[in-house]
Amino acid sequence: MTKYIFITGGVVSSLGKGLSAAAIGNLLKARGLTVTFLKLDPYINVDPGTMNPYQHGEVFVTDDGAETDLDLGHYERYTSITMSKENNYTTGKIYFNVISKERRGDYLGGTVQVVPHITNEIKHSIKAVAKGNKNQVDVVIVEIGGTVGDIESLPFLEAIRQFPFDVGRENVLYIHLTLVPYIKAADELKTKPTQHSVNKMREIGIQPDILLCRTDRALASDLKKKIALFCSVELSAVITARDVASIYEVPLVFHHEKLDETIVKKLGLKTPKPELRRWKRIVRVITKPKGRVRIALVGKYVDLKDSYKSLYESLIHGGIGNQLGVDVEWIDSEDLEGKRVDRILKDCDGVLVASGFGHRGIEGKVSAIRYAREKEVPFFGICLGMQCAVIEFARNVVGLQKASSAEFDPKTPHPVIDLLPEQRHLVDKGATMRLGAYLCHIQKKTRAYGIYRERAISERHRHRYEFNNIYRDQMEQKGMIFGGLSPDGKLVEMIEIPNHPWFVAVQFHPEFKSRPDEPHPLFQSFIKSAHQLFIQRTQDKTVVEKTSRKNRRKK
After folding, report:
1. Which of 92, 179, 402, 546 has an alpha carbon 20 to 30 Å from 324's alpha carbon atom?
2. Maximum Cα–Cα distance for the chain, whole Å?
């Protein structure tokens, strides 16, 4: 019988429900259980694909082309379980399904209501994900977006309140993530927000089984006893979810608190102790690296770092693969426009130009790419980053001075980046881009082949515009190499420039497939090259200092 874990949040948002869900999945999988996830988001958008990154953060894309919440990225990174469109439902998607059924007459003329029709649809999505694989999974971890008390979350909370009556109370576990803040003036941790949050859950009809107490320090035993007493949970079920230096420490913190042991006991599961040696090795490299590199992440949405969550984590993974720490310098591409780019980027060992949409900040990205190309600094372009690399090369190497993308300048005389023919007449914006996993054939004798060591790869996409093949011959004649193409050879997937330490740009999003225990080869290779530049700079600096000291002694 499948077991179901429901994770809710209280007091404030952004406490880390997604990371908590992913960490729990990590521990249960380490105990030999088969696990899957479901993120239920309360917003009315059908998916986050059309939402501003500043409002929602990153859109995580699955192999099957679903635009989903960024928490699915956490699930994949912590467990290496591939997510799909069935692992993320929104209020909009639930209502869309119910209204479609009503229009078909599935409800036989009955009045359609929140209870039972909406709640039944929510419960159906929960049960469906348990059967998503050929073999039914052992545990489904369901994360409820938002905060208890939000009006938008009520149908989801009502659905999970009903759920034990469908599958049996012994097969359901409620975990509530709450805040235990430290008040500096009083020099103490306060439990009242947690008490109020749990009371709010009780009003809905849900008694939490386990409390994850988010705090910046360990909870003393007397404080745990107080929380257990006032919130009607067992003392062993009050878990310290303390702040950590790296998010990859969370599973180890939970294991130290015996959370996984409490979960399997409450669900009546018999499992061996978790095998965590590999995960401990990852954390050890992160906390005690053999060296460090500095990477400039040039993007349009850097004020909200969650907009590039997978990119950031993939850089960290690339560091793990080289036993290095990675310091990311967040640079708004608009800040590079009309300024001395070399002054801003001079201390960086590598430049990564990120994805995005629209014309804002484009010239800053182009300037960063020109700097990296001319100064021989390792450069990595992703999606829009590749398109900007094509524009920069066309302008400054090929000589097409007004080259641009039709997205930014519809009147450009040289649209080196243009819409696919099938995209030209689309009206709807949602879920109409080139989305999901596509094959890419890598050309031999290229840097790309040296990195992947495979002729055929599969990577995830999210874009409308493509390289304009009209300009392919001109680019090749001036030295650009098209290292990866679609199987039919019509779409450019990867470009590179020879005689450069590391200059690679891709149309796809490799960050969606990187894992801490399996860094994506592109990120691992990029960080390695950046470290080589760091070593070279350090050696050059040492030589200069020695020469300077020698000259001073002569004087």
Report:
1. 546
2. 100
Confidence grade of residue 344 (pLDDT, cut at 50, 70, 90): very high
Q: Contact at 8 Å (CB) between 472 and 482?
A: yes
Catalytic one of 317, 461, 500, 509: 509
383 is catalytic: yes
532, burial (CB in 10 Å: exposed 0-12, middle 13-18, buried 19+): middle
R_g of the chain computed on alpha carbons: 26
Angle made by CA atoms 133, 138, 139, in degrees to the nearest 5: 100
The pLDDT confidence band at residue 359, using thresholds 50, 70 and 90, is confident
Strand partners, 325: 292
Q: Structure tokens of 547?
A: 């020469």
Q: How would you class 172 by CB atoms within 10 Å of its CB: exposed for 0-12, middle for 13-18, buried for 19 or more?
A: buried
Per-residue pLDDT tens over the stretch 480-511: 999 999 999 999 999 999 999 999 999 999 99
Does the pTM exceed 0.90?
Answer: yes
Closest CA to 399 of 475, 496, 337: 475
User: Is residue 171 within a helix (H) or strand (E), and if so which, with residue range?
Assistant: none
Residue 309 contacts residue 302 (beta carbons within 8 Å): no
Q: pLDDT value at position 131?
A: 84
Q: Where are the beta strands (DSSP E) in 103-237?
A: 139-144, 172-179, 182-183, 188-189, 210-215
Active site residue 509: yes
- Alpha-carbon distances of 108 from 96, 98, 103, 105, 112, rounded to whole Å: 18, 13, 10, 5, 10
Task: Please write the tens of the pLDDT for every residue from 160-195.
Answer: 999 999 999 999 999 999 999 999 999 999 999 999
In the set 231, 383, 388, 440, the catalytic residue is: 383
Are 137 and 2 within 8 A, CB to CB? yes
- How far apart, in whole angstroms, are the C-alpha atoms of residue 197 and residue 458? 44
Burial class (CB in 10 A: 0-12, 13-18, 19+), 489: exposed
For tokens 């591939």, name the residue: 82
- For residue 550, count CB atoms less than 10 angstroms from its CB and return exposed for 0-12, middle for 13-18, buried for 19 or more: exposed
Helix 17-30, helix 259-266: angle, nearest 10? 70
Beta strands 456-463 and 465-467, pairing class = unpaired
Backbone angles phi, psi at 76, to 5 degrees: -70, -40
Which residues make beta-bridge pairs with 458?
439
Pairing label, strands 3-9, 88-90: unpaired
Residue 53 pLDDT: 82
What's the confidence (pLDDT) of residue 531? Answer: 97
| Mean pLDDT (whole number) for 324-349 | 92
Q: Which of 58, 143, 511, 531 is catalytic?
A: 511
Rounded Cα–Cα distance for residues 395 and 360 (Å)? 19
Q: Kind of pairing, strands 172-179 and 210-215?
A: parallel
Question: Is pLDDT at 552 greater than 80 in this prediction?
Answer: no
101 confidence band (pLDDT: 50, 70, 90): very high
Distance, in Å, from the CA atom of 390 to the CA atom of 481, rounded to the nearest integer, reads: 11
